[in-house]
Specification:
With about 350 residues, the chain is α+β, with helices and mostly antiparallel strands. Helix content is about 40%, strand content about 30%.
Amino acid sequence: MATEVTCPIQGNDVPITWDANLTQSDVIKVIETFAPFGHWVRNMQDKSTQAELRVVSVHMQSVDKFGPRIGFVKFSAKVADVHNPTRIVPGIVFARGGAVAVLMILSARKPNGQIKEYTVVTEQARIAAGKANFVEIPAGMLDGDGNFAGAMAREVEEELGLKINVKELEPLTDHFQDTCSAEGMYPSVGGCDEFIKIYLYRKEVDQKDMDDLEGKQGGKEEEGEKLTARVIPLDELWRKAPDAKALSALCLYREQYLNTNTTTSSSTTSELDGLRQIAGLEAKLVSLEKQINDTKTVNIHKKSTIQFSFVTNLALALLIVLIGIHFLCSLDIRSPVVFETTKFE
């Protein structure tokens, strides 16, 4: 029985081995049909990657299936540094492939006319996190057909029972392909190949529609899925969902929509600049007023000191005069005062 096959990677026939719990048929199926493994091979063959790293060998460790379909594959790759071949780069990979997620923003108009934004999250068991009710935004794995938006629309229908038009989904992660050749957001790149394409869905709905969503049950029972939909205020999402998808989606939404709308509006920018200038003038006026008050305080203090000195001196002069009068009155003016003089010869 063969214990090794080869796979063309970076222009070389790279040897692939496997654990005893796997068969040659399992390994060949991974190489030929498992999209995430093919995606990993293509990434390793990127010119910038080949200039730095060389795949020496691959060892398959486990294959998990969802029915007849391969779901997850764990393998270790021996990868050497091109510039220092003795240095082996850590290469344990949990391959599960791409996924999709959506930030759903539902706007409801209140009786006073104000619009409040809400978002839809799901609660479901996540054994890897040890949580029975993990809060996250709607998401799902790709089915391999490459239709990301279509996969997201199907997931929303499966999880929430909502049918949405693919054209209503706005991509939030497509810019990665232009800036860094990435297909999406990587939540755990240290050991997992998963990338997530994130979409935005916005719609104004009635309060009744949101009430119908709250507590709704969903998920594929045949795959053991059971989830509950929750509707929460959008501004509370970052507090209630310790989910990388949710936090990334919220950040991308604010950066691409809220910040962009603020900076591109010249009128808004002018108003903000005007307010900043007014605030600066007010600060200067407050500082100037404080200086004036301090100066007044010093002047008042000096004036008080001068007035006190004058009164004190006047009192002393009067006291001296009174003492002199008292001294004169105590003398016996009836007897002549004889002054003897000494004559110097």
